[in-house]
Specification:
Helix content: 25-40%
Number of helices: 12
CATH superfamily of the largest domain: ATPase, nucleotide binding domain
Shape: globular
Number of strands: 15
Number of domains: 3
Strand order of the largest sheet: 5-4-3-6-10
Oligomer: single chain
Order of helices and strands: HHHEEEEEHHEEEEEHEEEHHHHEHEH
CATH class of the largest domain: Alpha Beta
Distance between the termini: 21 Å
């Protein structure tokens, strides 16, 4: 969420309409590149003179550029000049803070990753972490000076709960409570966005994963922890306090417990996170292994690995079914380290989620399905790219119409 959450009050209706029209035209060119001004006018309902004024300003700002001249129409219409987003017109920094590393990426206006860097960190002290972050961003800007000149802001993601002011309320993996990152990052005179990693992952899928405007999407982050983020009409659903979709404590199976160690509960995160999965393997085999080893043994058809992943899939399926009953999104995307296991448990997901809706329909791994399941294509880069998308989406997002009444 942006640290300055509310936009500056708009003083006139005209300035609001200008912002709306800027966002509409930029958004249209993002989905439909190489449109002429006449095409834009027809698709938006704006007058040609209004489109000409706005596109002239966008060209001057470097956000769009002119392309080829089109042929005249069969009806005798004049040729037009195609317009498209200028990839080098703006850049967006995204950073993902994890318990053992920091990753920073730079995104251009065409939503392409232009630079990427990742380093391990010795500790998670906020002062130390932010100093490493500052150095990484400066390193990226040395590689691409235009990125600094045309930067639209910095988006940071963390594996924890945030309030609406961008304060990290709780991030257990980082050992953070009530951490405000803003004072550490005053060196950057740029808009600063801070968000939960799962929420940012949901935005990545909405903006870069092929969803169209108006769709609802639930992103389920499967990693060291379990998180979820939901996007409705291209906006994150945050809830009243900004902590919506905190799914880790959902009870999946109250009968599951390791009484001896009292570390294994029947909650979603305990059963379906990476730690829970590896602890389950240890429970059945007596051996501690890492995720790569588990994947290798799964590919080798080891019986214990197959059993552990099978039950992981069953618990995942029932967790997702509970979320579906409450949220009913059009699309569910699995991301994070454990998303590679989803194809192994597709049968369990299909069995639990097909026919789970009141009308008898359900969720399927089918691109043509109304309610669709999918695995993210962004892998481990999703949190950092999500940070960049936090800034990116601000360029295309409509202003809050409630500001008219301020």
């Amino acid at each position: 969420m942006e640290t300055n959450l509310r936009q500056k009050p708009l003083t006139t209706d005209a300035s609001l309409l200008k912002q709306i029209n800027f966002a509409r035209i930029l958004g249209l060119l993002r989905y439909h590149p190489r449109l002429t001004r006449a095409h834009i006018a027809r698709r938006t309902g704006l007058t040609r003179s209004t489109v000409t004024v706005i596109t002239t300003e966008l060209i001057a700002a470097g956000l769009i550029r002119e392309g080829q001249e089109t042929a005249s129409t069969p009806e005798g219409g004049r040729p037009g000049v195609e317009l498209e987003l200028n990839p080098e017109g703006a850049f967006f920094i995204g950073a993902a803070i994890a318990d053992e590393s920091i990753q920073v990426v730079e995104l251009n206006l065409a939503a392409q990753v232009t630079h990427r860097v990742q380093i391990p960190i010795p500790n998670t002290d906020p002062s130390s972490v932010t100093q490493h972050l500052i150095e990484l961003i400066q390193h990226l800007w040395q590689a691409n000076p235009q990125g600094k000149v045309r930067s639209r802001g910095i988006g940071i993601t963390v594996p924890g709960s945030l309030n609406r002011e961008g304060i990290v309320l709780r991030a257990p993996r980082l050992h953070w409570q009530q951490v405000d990152l803003r004072p550490y990052l005053k060196v950057f005179d740029l808009p600063l966005f801070i968000e939960n990693d799962a929420n940012a992952g949901a935005l990545v899928e909405m903006y870069l994963g092929g969803s169209m405007p108006g769709h609802s999407l639930l992103y389920l982050f499967l990693g060291v922890g379990i998180g979820a983020g939901m996007v409705l009409n291209h906006r994150l659903f945050r809830g009243a306090g900004g902590t919506a979709c905190e799914v880790s404590d959902l009870m999946i199976d109250p009968q599951v417990a390791d009484v001896a160690q009292r570390e294994w509960s029947g909650k979603f995160e305990a059963l379906c996170s990476k730690d829970g999965l590896l602890q389950a393997y240890h429970h059945y085999s007596g051996e501690w292994i890492d995720l790569d080893t588990l994947l290798t043994r799964l590919e080798q058809a080891e019986a214990i690995a197959q059993t552990v992943v099978k039950y992981w899939g069953i618990y995942l399926s029932w967790g997702v079914r509970g979320l579906v009953g409450v949220l009913n999104p059009e699309r569910i995307v699995f991301g994070g380290q454990l998303a590679v296991l989803v194809p192994y448990v597709q049968h369990q997901l299909d069995e639990v989620l097909q026919g789970c809706l009141p009308d008898g329909s359900g969720y399927r791994f089918d691109r043509t399905a109304r309610f669709r399941l999918a695995v993210s294509k962004f892998g481990g880069d999703s949190p950092a790219i999500g940070g960049a998308v936090l800034v990116y989406q601000s360029l295309f997002q409509m202003p809050d119409l409630l500001l008219l009444h301020q």
